[in-house]
Amino acid sequence: MIRNKKRWEEFERELIEKEKVDYRKNFKIVGKLYKFAKKLGRFKASLDGIEIDIKYAKAINGIRKVNNKDL
Predict the structure, then answer these.
(1) Threshold 0.85, pTM exceeds
(2) Sign of the C-alpha dihedral, residues 16, 20, 22, 23?
(3) Using one digit for the tens of pLDDT, what is the confidence trace for 50-65?
(4) What is the 3-state secondary structure (H, E, C) of 8-48?
């Protein structure tokens, strides 16, 4: 349990500032998560091709926007 919320938020902010983004690693993770979700039947087959690329781009751009607001 986190007892000092302000200290925890400061730690998170410093960690985000120091840590560099590894886009290659992140794309690998997203790809594996997608394959796993597809295997479980959570994605329909119609998401092949460019539609998947668009979904990835929207997700990544959304993450960047959230991270930039916190800094």
Answers:
(1) no
(2) positive
(3) 777 888 888 887 776 5
(4) HHHHHHHHHHHCCCCHHHHHHHHHHHHHHHHHCCCCCHHHC
